[in-house]
Amino acid sequence: MRERVVGVARWAVDRGDAVLVTLGLGSCVAVALYDAEAKVGALLHLLLPSQQMARDHSNPGRFPETALPLALAEMEAAGAQRDRLAAWLVGGASMFGAASPTIAMGERNVVAARQALANAHVPLVAEDVRERHGRSVYFHLEDGRIEVRTVAHGSRTL
């Protein structure tokens, strides 16, 4: 089993026995994409809901509207078929409470990721989003299992 860590504002596409991992999701959102027949998956760690929220647009991995099409193209090049894809969302937490102006960032990231998936016609099958705790994702491409781990709230499988 090979483990690949996906950093903030990055994505990875792999297949077979790989485990794609992203750590420390707060208000960021992870999108997992999977073609179960080809056993090809992608994991994206999205930072901001829109390019309009950033001055620097040089990294397309930061935004759902730019990262998702690139990851989908890479998946298709690896043998995935768009009509067999399914998606999961994890993250989008409100980490700082109601007094913070960043409270809406997690929610905005969730909404933007959902919209990007809808625009790409990729069905969203499950999610573990919002609340007030961070998460890490372990995406097992051999069987499509998505393990969401938290410090204070245990683990769950999507």
List keywords for this structure.
60s Ribosomal Protein L30, Chain: A, alpha+beta, 158 residues, globular, five-stranded mixed β-sheet
What does this structure look like?
The protein has 158 residues and is an alpha+beta fold. It contains two helices and ten strands; from the N terminus they run E-E-E-E-E-H-E-H-E-E-E-E. The longest helix has 17 residues, at 103-119. The chain is globular. The protein starts with a strand and ends with a strand. The mean pLDDT is 92.
Short description, anyone?
This protein is α+β, with helices and mostly antiparallel strands and 158 residues long.
Structural class based on helices, strands and sheet pairing: alpha+beta
Strand content: 35-45%
Number of helices: 2
Which regions contain 5 or more consecutive residues with pLDDT less than 50? none
Count of DSSP E strands?
Answer: 10
Number of domains: 1
Helix proportion: 10-25%
Q: How far is it from the N-terminal to the C-terminal residue, by CA?
A: 20 Å
The top level CATH class name: Alpha Beta
Listing every helix as H and every strand as E from the N terminus to the C terminus, the arrangement reads EEEEEHEHEEEE
CATH architecture: 2-Layer Sandwich
What strand order characterises the main sheet? 1-3-8-9-10
Rg over C-alpha atoms, rounded to the nearest angstrom: 14 Å
